[in-house]
Amino acid sequence: MKLYRLLTGPDDSAFCARVEGLLNRGWQLHGSPSITEVGGRGYVAQAIVMEKAGPYPGFQPSSEIEPD
C-alpha cells in the first residue's frame, strides 16, 4: 500500500524541518513543491509518499464500509 500526505505551511525553516524529519523516517518526495503568496507571505505545499507492506491501520476499502 502507498501512503500519501500533502504538507502545507508558511515558507520557513519550520516547514523545511517538517519535510526533513519525514524524509529521515522513510517518506519520499512526490512531485515538485508548490508555492504561492498570500498577503506578502509565501506558503508552500509538498506531497510525500511511503510504501508500506500490508493494510494501513484503520483503512477500509469503500466496498467494506457499511452505510449509517
UniProtKB/TrEMBL annotation:
Organism: Sphingopyxis soli
Domain spans labelled DUF1737: 1-51
Name the record gives this protein: DUF1737 domain-containing protein
Superkingdom as given in the UniProt entry: Bacteria
Cross-referenced Pfam families: DUF1737
InterPro entries membership: DUF1737 (IPR013619)
